[in-house]
Every structure is written in structure tokens, then in C-alpha cells.
Amino acid sequence: MDARELDLLAERARALVADGEGDGGVAGVAGGRRRVLGIAGPPGAGKSTLAARLTARLDGLAVLVPMDGFHLAQAELERLGRAGRKGAPDTFDAAGYTALLVRLRAAEPGVTVYAPAFDRALEEPVAGAIPVPPGVPLVITEGNYLLHEEGAWAGVLPLLDEAWYLDLDDRRRVPRLVARHVRFGKDPAHAARWVADSDEANARLVARSRDRAHLVVRMS
Predict the structure, then answer these.
(1) Which domains are delineated in the chain?
(2) Exposed/middle/buried for 27, CB within 10 Å: 0-12, 13-18, 19+?
(3) Residue ranges of the chain with per-residue pLDDT less than 50
(4) pTM over 0.70
(5) How far is C-alpha 220 from the geometric centre of its chain's CA atoms?
(6) What are the start-end ranges of the E strands in 77-183?
(7) What angle do CA 146, 147, 149 make, to 5 degrees?
(8) How far apart are CA 195 and CA 189, in angstroms?
(9) What's 16's DSSP letter?
């Protein structure tokens, strides 16, 4: 994505903040309630990269809160027999993520909300790692299942002021995803198998919710 495309998306995000200023009465959030922008898409589409670049471009107006902080811990995945499907919808605490979005939108005056992060080197969530100060008017959240319609995930989209879906050609997305797994410790053969057996099953599921997005962003 070039600088001009990023600028256009940043302006669209800024407009959400401007729209929120007239809602009235939430102290510390520009006179209105906090807005939440969601960025969805399949594994390897570039969600975390775009969300981080967008947050930086907004220069203090936004905090990035990834969905991946709600991965279940590895020990719990093993207890549940789901470790081999890590990244599937039922390997996250979807209800916890939804509850956090409710709290973030409320923007209680004077209260910093702490969100979890996900450490890719450890492959574990880290509690309380992301502070969201009361005066920040926009939260950007990204993840695979923001548009998913099953179970607790169905409660996410109504909490987003806008949802974008990132669309990247599979011929670019899949090799990029394999390379990411290798970068974080899997050997190339294991990485390729994991993508084929796990990530791509999740990608097909995510693609089913594409039409629920307010905006489809073509990635390159």
C-alpha cells in the first residue's frame, strides 16, 4: 500500500473521530464517545501492519488493540484438545474480547483501560500490556473474526463504528504467511503444513463474512 492510499484511509478514520465529537458528554474524548474501527481479513492479509501504520499516521488520536490478545493460553488449548487448531474461532476468548470492546466504547472519564497483547515469540497472550488512556478518541482493533457471525463473535460487529475487510490475492498472502511462521520459529516444512492445514481453513471461514464489511480494502 502506497502513502496516498494510506492517507485516504487515515482521513476516513479521522472522520469517525469527527463524527463522534457531536455525540455529547464523554469527558476526555473530544466531547463525545470513543469510536472503534475494526480491521478484519484472513491470516496474512496485512491486518496488523496496516493497523500499526494507520495508528502511527493518526498521531495520538488512536490506540491499537489487536484481537489476538484474546488467544487462549497454550496450556488451556492443550487441555481442551485444540492446540492443533490454534487460530480457529474457538481458540479465542470471544466473550472476553466483546466485553473489552464494550468497556472501551464507554470511555469512562479518568479511567485507563488495559488490554491484552499477543507475544508471537512466546505464542502466548500477555495481560494488561496495552493502555488505552481516557482521552484517546479512537481504538483500532484488528483480527480474523471481527465479522464472524457465530457464537460470541456475533456481538463484535455491532460494537464497531466501521469495519474494513482486507483483501489480498492468495498467491501473495499464502507465501507471506508461511514466511511469517518461519520468522517466528517454525521450520519451513512445518510452516507450510500449518498454513495448508490450519490457517487456510480459517481463511476460508473468514472470507465468508467479507460482505458484512463497510469497506473492502484491496491490499498489494
Answers:
(1) 3-218 (3.40.50.300)
(2) exposed
(3) 22-28, 30
(4) yes
(5) 19
(6) 113-119, 124-132, 138-143, 162-167
(7) 115
(8) 10
(9) H
